[in-house]
Structures are given as structure tokens and as C-alpha cells.
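Hi W.,

Here's what went into the run:
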Amino acid sequence: MSFSPLIDQLISTLKYLPGVGNKSAQRMAFHLLQRNKEGGRQLAQTLSQALQEVSNCKRCRTLCELEVCTICSHPKRDPRVLCIVETPADIVAVEQTANYRGLYFVLMGHLSPIEGIGPEQIGIEQLRQRLDEGEIAEVILATSTTVEGETTAYYIAEITKSYPEISTTRLALGMPLGGELEHLDGSTLARALDQRSKVIT
Amino acid sequence: MSFSPLIDQLISTLKYLPGVGNKSAQRMAFHLLQRNKEGGRQLAQTLSQALQEVSNCKRCRTLCELEVCTICSHPKRDPRVLCIVETPADIVAVEQTANYRGLYFVLMGHLSPIEGIGPEQIGIEQLRQRLDEGEIAEVILATSTTVEGETTAYYIAEITKSYPEISTTRLALGMPLGGELEHLDGSTLARALDQRSKVIT
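Here's what came out:
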């Protein structure tokens, strides 16, 4: 038993959304068709416009409807520092610290042979060209601390090695603020111990 | 800090979907823009088509792109039995039992003065007209057993009272199959005890 063909089709296409299964898709379809038609119209229209207009920034590869994103084209950002992140959402996270004034390079993923994501998919060639321009003095590896993120960071560090004028750094590993020692995993605690710093009083 | 204007707008419109907050909307937007553009296009297109074509069945009020839904127009369904449910999904649930051959009437909600849903919004006038046609011999109240569902069932039972030829029934209340007595709530257990039936051996 199913609904009418068009409603069934709407439910299946809603399942393209990550994290949406059959029950949620059904609930979403009924909600849009019955309770929020105007919202549904806006969603369909914006989605279709975004799919047409959004592509990758020519400089940093982030998702953006401009040719060059606002950060890359900002005159006050420091072009000598390049922070390498996995996703556009990571840029937002770093920007929220309000501590960083350099530029970004977005891999749009991480190396993952299982998913068929190799150096080509994460824009390594474009990164090399960027480094070849000679303006960058520091590369900050800000990939995740997952296995894939660490592998990707290691892979990029191998590349930056051949640019002796570039200093390559990695985000510090340690206890998160507000974290309880008792609940911290062993590897993180080991790294935090290993990289302990002198208390300045 | 935010993304580009168009991506921000896509994220806000994705939040029209029930159960989708900021983080999920962001994940959905990036997924569609980066990993599944074709799926995104299909979603936008199907959603927009469904919003245009789907409306309510003239007989039972369920969501449907036909004037009269396939159940209402089915020649083999018994037109003397009318099962009253809250949503189109409830029809699917009842149909899956494969035990019911009558017709449906979908309230598309339940009485809820707080949400501004009164008799008019749940199609009571249309239900009265349906009862006036004189073909119906039994009305099965299959609303939920929530406060609103019970209130709605009671409200409709008051209406059917004035049709002496119609017998009004309500779904049985009791222990669900596979349920453990120990975890059953008190009110349900009380009803199950009260409405106990003789074991036929």
C-alpha cells in the first residue's frame, strides 16, 4: 500500500536528504503539502536556484554563488596564511573564533580510498598551484582528527615539505575546554600530556 | 559569520521541513550542492510539481493528485462502512492490516483549540453531508488515543448520534501485541481489564 504516485515520488526524493528515512520523508511531504505550502514553494525555488548558481570558489573551492568568495576577495585578509579545512562548515567554525585573519583552502572532503576520494577529488593539484604562487608563508592543517582527516593532513604535509619557505602547522591536540579528565579518551590524554605547556604566572 | 547569501537562504528554507534544525539544514544543503546535485534537482522539481497538483480528494479529503482518490473510486470497496482517521498516513496503516474493505474520511488533523483547529478545519461539514447521503451504516472512529484524538472522536460521536441508522464504533483499546504488562501504562491496563473478553477454547 502506498499513497498516490506523485506523493510517493515526493517521499522518495525527500529521502535524498541525508539522515532522512521513510517515516521522516512521509512526515515532511505531508507537512509541506498540507501545512506549509508557501514554505514548500520557497524551498523548491531556492533549491533549484542554488543548484544552478552555486559552484566552487575559484580560489579556495568553498561553495559559493560568486566566482571568488567574499573571504578570498576580502582586501584585509592576510594572504600569507592558508588554513586547510575539509568543508565550508569548517570555515564557519574557524571564523566564529574571530581569531583568524588568513585565507582558506577547502578540500570539500578528505582522502578516503574506500569512497573513491583521492587527491584529485580534494583539489590537491589546485593547492599545489596555489603554493607555487609563492605568496604563502604558513599552511595550517585544520582537517578533522579522524583517521581520514589525519591521513589527509599527513598527505598535505608531505607536499608542503617541498616548499622550504612554507611553515606547516597542525591544530593543537588536547583537552577540550569544559572537558572532564575522567571522560577523555586515552589517546587524546596521552597527546595532551605529551604536549603539555609551561604555566606562565 | 555565515555562508554566501544563496546558501544561507537554502539553509533557512530547508528548516521549513519538520524536525530539521540549523545543523541538519546545513548538512542537507552541502550534501545536495556538493554530493547529489541530480537528487537535489529531482527533489526541487517533484516538490514543486506536487505542490501544484496535489490537493484533497473530493470524497475523503486525503492528499491526492486525482479529483477522487483510488480508494474512494474503487468499485469493490464497501460504501456502507466509513473509517474516520486523522491523516493520510493513518490510511496506509489501516490498509496494511489488509482487513478493512470500507471507505475512509480523513480529518487532516484533530480538534485543537490551542492550534486554532476547530470543526471547520477538520471537515466536519463535509462529513455531515456524507452522512446525509444515507449510504453509510457504520462509522469507525479511528482517531489517535491522544487527548486531541479522543476529543475529536467524542465530538464526531455526538454528531453521528443524530443518525439513528448509523452504528458508531471506536477502535478497541488494550494491550498492544508483544507488549509487556510491566511496561504498560495504568490507564491502558485499566481499560484492557475492563474490556476483557471471554477466552474461547
